[in-house]
Amino acid sequence: MDQRDPNQDYDLDRPVGPAQGMRQGLTSYGDAHFSLFLRKAFIKAMGYGEEALSRPLVGVVNTHSGFNPCHANVPQLIEAVRRGAQLAGALVVDFPTISLHESFAAPTSMFLRNLMSMDTEEMVRAQPVDAVVLIGGMFMFML
């Protein structure tokens, strides 16, 4: 795990780096320090501290939805992943993607599967994550 001083991010004489966790994929405002400051200001409003934000960041993409009975156990899976990644020293942030269930997708979920994959790919690409865990469900068809 990176043992750098989290306060180094605010030293304007040092470049922002290494490009991991909160320091990667910064929005370009022309000043990397300002971009990092802004990113951290928003996420700190959710209760995260400097020590937590200096850890490797693991994103947990999930398909949980109240409309999707196949994914009812997803919250428990997210918590299990969270515990394991935190024990390994990571900061875990979960975020949703589109949830499809055949009986609630009219006329069929087949039309929406590409949209789901595009949403998931773009959300993963947009987040400053060092690793990603994908949690989804499966469709069961009975004939």
Instruction: Assign the structural class, choosing from mainly alpha, mainly beta, alpha/beta, alpha+beta, or little secondary structure.
Output: alpha/beta
Kindly state the mean pLDDT as a whole number?
Answer: 84
The termini sit apart by 51 Å
> How helical, in percent, are the residues?
25-40%
- Continuous helix count: 4
Strand content: 5-15%
Task: Characterise this structure.
- This protein has 143 residues and is an alpha/beta fold.
- It has a three-stranded parallel beta sheet, covered by helices on one side.
- The radius of gyration is 18 Å and the shape is elongated.
Write the layout of secondary structure elements.
Elements: H1 32-44, H2 50-53, E1 57-62, H3 74-87, E2 91-96, H4 113-126, E3 131-135
Parallel strand pairs: 1-2, 1-3
Can you describe this structure in just a few lines?
With 143 residues, this protein is of the alpha/beta class.
List keywords for this structure.
alpha/beta; 3-stranded parallel sheet; 4 helices; disordered C terminus
